[in-house]
Amino acid sequence: MKSLWLDIGNTRLKYWITENQQIIEHAAELHLQSPADLLLGLIQHFKHQGLHRIGISSVLDTENNQRIQQILKWLEIPVVFAKVHAEYAGLQCGYEVPSQLGIDRWLQVLAVAEEKENYCIIGCGTALTIDLTKGK
C-alpha cells in the first residue's frame, strides 16, 4: 500500500511516498508564498502513483489548509491532517490551548517520547524550538 506524507512548513513543502513502510520517493521544495500552488503542480504526478492515503503535517492557517485539502480531493483517497491533542499516547501537551502548539513540534515529541525516559527535543525549522518530555 502506497502512502503520501506531506510536511508543509512556513517556507518549504516536503513529501515522501512510502510503500510497505519504505520510502520510495521524496522531495523538498520552497513554496515561498503559495504552498497550494506548488501542490497543484505536483497533483498529476501524485495521481499516477497509485496512492491509498495521505497524511499531512501543516503549520499553515485554516484557509490555506482548506485549499490544500480541496486540491488533494482530486486524488480521491483519504486525507488526514495531524492535530495536536491535550493528551495522546500517554503524552500531555503543556499548552493550555493545545492548538497553539505547532503540529511539527507535537509530532517531533510524539516520535521520541517514552513513558519512562526524559528527552530534550530541539527543532531547527523557521524557528529554533526546544521541547522537554518527562517520563514517569
UniProtKB/TrEMBL annotation:
InterPro entries: ATPase_NBD (IPR043129), Type_III_PanK (IPR004619). The keyword ATP-binding applies. It catalyses: (R)-pantothenate + ATP = (R)-4'-phosphopantothenate + ADP + H(+). Keywords: ATP-binding, Coenzyme A biosynthesis, Cytoplasm, Kinase, Nucleotide-binding, Potassium, Transferase. GO terms for biological process: coenzyme A biosynthetic process. GO terms for molecular function: ATP binding; pantothenate kinase activity. Its cofactor is K(+); NH4(+). The keyword Transferase applies. It is an enzyme of class 2 (transferase). Pathway: Cofactor biosynthesis; coenzyme A biosynthesis; CoA from (R)-pantothenate: step 1/5. Its EC number is 2.7.1.33. One of its GO terms (cellular component) is cytoplasm. It is found in: Cytoplasm. It comes from the Bacteria. Homodimer. Belongs to the type III pantothenate kinase family. This is Type III pantothenate kinase. It comes from Acinetobacter baumannii.
